[in-house]
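For homework, think about our next protein:
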Amino acid sequence: MHHVTRLYRSSESTNQRILFDIDPSGQHLGTGGQDGLVHIYDLQTGQWVSGFQAALDTVNGFSFHPFLPHAVSSSGHRRFVIPDDDNEDLSLSGHENCVSMWSFGLKEDGNFMDQTESENLDSNS
């Protein structure tokens, strides 16, 4: 068996499934991890291309839109909290156990814009 490539994912200490997706062009792979980040890799080189904070907890799902520059991520993990006090607030923030939709820019060569390029594009709109 021939090993093609190996990509880092932040998922060393969980048995939770962490899904990935390949963009419609077949050039990039997107995946989540326990660090709350989405990581984008170039499938030709195996190199990390981009990443962004998608949640405060585990990003367990990521999927590219089939033809628009959009993607969705899902986050969440089981929490086993035993409250010490009846007054303790156990509510989640808006960035935990959520589904988020992302819009991103692509350069003419099909690569992802870095954060500065995307911010410049947004400010010129």
Helices lie at 115-123. Residues 42 and 64 are 14 Å apart (CA to CA). Strands lie at 20-22, 28-31, 37-42, 48-53, 59-64, 70-75, 99-103.
